[in-house]
Specification:
The complex is a heterodimer.
Chain A lengths: L6 H11 L19 H8 L2 H10 L2 H18 L1 H4 L20 E4 L2 E14 L6 E12 L1 E11 L3 E9 L18 H37 L1 H15 L3 H11 L6 H14 L2 H16 L2 H8 L4 H37 L11 H5 L5 H6 L7 H21 L5
Antiparallel strand pairs in A: 1-2, 2-3, 4-5
Helix pairs in contact in A: 3-15, 4-15, 6-7, 6-9, 6-10, 6-12, 7-10, 10-12, 11-12, 12-15
Chain B lengths: L1 H27 L5 H11 L6 H11 L5 H13 L5 E2 L4 E2 H5 L2 H29 L4 H15 L2 H16 L18 H38 L2 H8 L4 H13 L1 H5 L1 H19 L4 H10 L3 H29 L1 H6 L5
Antiparallel strand pairs in B: 1-2
Helix pairs in contact in B: 1-4, 1-15, 6-7, 6-9, 6-13, 7-9, 8-9, 8-13, 9-11, 9-13, 13-15, 14-15
């Protein structure tokens, strides 16, 4: 066997030696693409379902989500949840320390109760001293009639989730300089502090999406003008400018108008981040194949923007909105704390914290700092939620 | 580099003009002016109003003239270094402000240095040892640092320093040194009093800086060239420092731009709580009493501080990163 190697000869020889086998089953060219039920479910799921599945894996974000949902539901019923009314004053108990809840008295189970407080003015140090009187057992009442209030400022009611015993007190987080219950005021404050974030973000959303949208859609000189404006606004130190703006609000305005004024002011410095995000998303999406396809098929610009472009970045938008709510809550707290934000008839956590402005007060009555706890917890929850949403925002990656 | 520098300066000028205009519009916006309040106050006390003095002030600052003209006068004087007249203190703003501007500047600078010194090692550590105990601890503290309002942090730190170490914090120096000539004792007293404000102001920024550096470094460490380097047997430290670290360092410089405004803001709030003689407390007072030129020059100074800070950080970034100075745009 000399001479050149002949491949075809070789192959025929091999084929002759092997037994020929043929699959009798009918051949289905699509067999490679059939999927298990689980795969099918995954690939056919709509985008929002994918986002939810991905979001669910971020445990902290999920907990934050349920926590915030609960908080916002609670905000609807603050009058019922708070043991006292917002303005209830008790001049016998000024700067009373928090009362702790006990379950057993003299080794016997009596259910949740507090010991009554005895008040004495220490004539040497001139400090108010409160002591627990172990003989006064004041069981907490639940689902009871207590302070009168107007539910949502309209319906007169006196139903509370829990109230102090008849003739007793229930200051779980102490009282302030007018003898008002700190816990109740914190619960009422939640209504303002939590809504100011949402209202402010709504204003900022309107500004950001319209300005960013115009810049991103038209491009050209409008785009560069908006870019410059954003740069200028971002170079301002926020809090001093907020202070200056809120100093403009007339003193004669009613508290409600001040509330809206403050939210608008907060939004005025918050929109640039959002506008920038909208603009850059629009600019990049404009070049995508599906946009070109829609244009070629004759879709109007309006349809392209709202039907094709918006859905692809709305989840990013929601994530960045969530991440800027805590900034608003913190800013409102700081403004009110400095006395240039909301004013006393309206009660927010920041307004409550103005009571704890000086270190001397904090040393004597540390419980006045407690309204800061819900601020921190809420801000943390929004941060985690925003983190989770941002990770889940693009489920196809 | 030179053309980048010139372009950057040219951008800065209109920014300054626009921001000064906005500031002037804001301080002008409240109805009435300080002189009206002042006259009303004098009259209610039954004192004689020095009409000549009022007219002189009015004429000098053109309070009776149209808005744009007033702005032009104010801005022109500002360029010449004349910051106007404080009605409340009855003295030129330059005198009233005194050392406060310097102090604000020094505190901001110290806080930036603090942020860098703390954020750098922690950021690198958390990225290299991802999901380790230290990483979790740093992340938790970082999140808390972002969530706690800094005035609260100031109050809490003052409280505990008072209880544990019996140190009176607050104010810039011990009462004994006020109005004394400069000495080592005075300087060290100022330094010890600055520690707490710097930590308080820097916490939020440090937290976000750590997260940025960690994310950037993690991105970089998972790239193929790092894997290749590792496979070829580069020593781990060299593999970390040679390229990934250098690339992820960009936020340290670039973030000054977005960090400075928030830093200046929180410095203002913390100064009020801790009673530091910086611009913050006086700004609030001036805003409340409609002392417009005083408030305006504080606001102008603060935004000048941030604009120049951003300018410097852009220059540093351009010097470090050829992509920026050649393309004329920041790339992340």
């Amino acid at each position: 066997m000399s001479g050149p190697f002949n491949p075809s000869e070789n192959r025929d020889e091999l084929a002759d030696r092997l037994e020929h086998w043929q699959n009798p089953e009918p051949f289905d060219p699509g067999s490679i693409e059939t999927m298990t039920a689980a795969q099918e479910r995954y690939f056919q799921a709509p985008a929002w379902k994918l986002i939810w599945w991905k979001f669910r894996r971020h445990k902290l974000a999920l907990i934050s989500f349920w926590f915030l949902l609960l908080l916002y539901i609670a905000v609807l019923f603050v009058e019922i949840l708070a043991p006292y009314e917002l303005k209830t004053r008790n001049s016998d108990f000024i700067f009373a320390p928090p009362q702790s809840v006990h379950l057993f008295h003299d080794g016997e189970f009596v259910g949740p109760f507090v010991y009554g407080l005895d008040y004495k003015l220490n004539m040497e140090t001139l400090k108010r001293e409160y002591t627990e009187d172990k003989s006064k057992v004041q069981p907490i009442r639940f689902f009871c009639a207590g302070d009168d209030y107007a539910f949502w400022g309209m319906i007169p009611m006196d139903f509370h989730l829990m109230c102090p015993a008849e003739g007793g007190t229930l200051y779980l987080l102490g009282t302030d300089r007018l003898g008002r219950d700190v816990l109740s005021r914190m619960i009422y404050g939640a209504r303002i502090s939590l809504t100011i974030g949402l209202v402010g973000i709504a204003f900022s959303f309107l500004l950001g999406i319209s300005i960013g949208g115009v810049a991103g859609y038209y491009g050209g000189w409008i785009d560069s003008a908006v870019q410059r404006l954003i740069e200028v606004v971002r170079s301002f130190p926020e809090i001093p400018l907020w202070l200056a703006l809120s100093a403009i609000l007339p003193v004669t305005w009613s508290p409600l108008w001040v509330f809206f004024g403050i939210t608008l002011i907060l939004a005025l410095l918050d929109w640039p981040g959002l506008a920038r995000a909208v603009r850059s998303k629009l600019l990049s999406l404009r070049e995508e194949d599906f946009t070109v396809a829609a244009q070629l098929m004759g879709a109007s610009p309006k349809r392209i923007i709202f039907r094709h472009l918006m859905p692809s970045f709305s989840s990013h938008l929601i994530a960045s909105l969530t991440l800027s709510i805590p900034g608003m809550i913190l800013a409102e707290t700081a403004l009110s704390f400095l006395g240039l934000g909301l004013r006393p008839p309206i009660t927010s956590w920041g307004v409550l914290l103005t009571e704890a402005q000086s270190i001397n007060v904090v040393e004597l009555y540390p419980w006045l700092l407690l309204p800061a706890v819900p601020v921190i917890v809420t801000v943390l929850a929004f941060n985690f939620l925003g983190d989770g949403l941002r990770d889940a925002a693009d489920p196809y990656r | 580099m030179l053309s980048y520098l010139i372009r950057r300066i040219l951008i800065m000028v209109p920014t300054l003009v626009v921001s000064s205009f906005i500031i002037f519009a804001i301080i002008q916006a409240p109805p009435g002016d300080y002189l009206e309040t002042y006259i009303a106050e004098l009259e209610s006390r039954g004192e004689a109003v020095d009409q000549a003095r009022i007219d002189q002030l009015r004429g000098e600052y053109g309070l009776d003239r149209p808005f744009l003209e007033q702005y032009a006068v104010w801005a022109w004087k500002l360029v010449q270094g004349d910051m106007g007249y404080s009605f409340e203190y009855q003295a030129p703003v330059t005198e009233v402000v005194g050392d406060r501007l310097w102090l604000t500047f020094i505190i901001s600078l110290a806080t930036i240095l603090f942020t860098w010194i703390v954020a750098f090692p922690i950021g690198v550590y958390t990225a290299v040892r991802q999901y380790s105990m230290g990483d979790y601890v740093a992340t938790t503290i970082g999140f808390l640092g972002l969530a706690v309002p800094n005035f609260l942090l100031a109050l809490i730190m003052m409280h505990f320093l008072n209880v544990w170490f019996d140190v009176e914090i607050g104010g810039l120096m011990d009462a004994a040194y006020v109005d004394q000539p400069w000495s080592w004792g005075k300087i060290s007293s100022i330094l010890t009093h600055m520690i707490v404000p710097v930590i308080v102001i820097g916490t939020a920024g440090t937290a976000s800086m750590i997260r940025r550096l960690r994310a950037n470094l993690l991105d970089e460490l998972s790239k193929q060239y790092v894997v290749t380097g590792k496979a070829k047997g580069l020593p781990p430290l060299k593999l970390l420092i040679k390229y990934p670290l250098r690339i992820s360092l960009n936020p340290f410089i670039a973030d000054i731009g977005s960090y400075l405004p928030s830093l200046v803001s929180s410095a203002a709030v913390v100064s009020i709580v801790m009673n530091l003689p910086t611009t913050g407390p006086m700004l609030i007072e001036a805003l409340k009493s409609q002392d417009m030129y005083l408030a305006g020059s504080f606001l102008m100074f603060l935004s000048l501080l941030t604009i120049i800070g951003v300018f410097i950080s852009d220059l540093a970034l351009a010097a470090l990163d050829p992509r920026i100075r050649l393309e004329g745009g920041a790339t992340k």
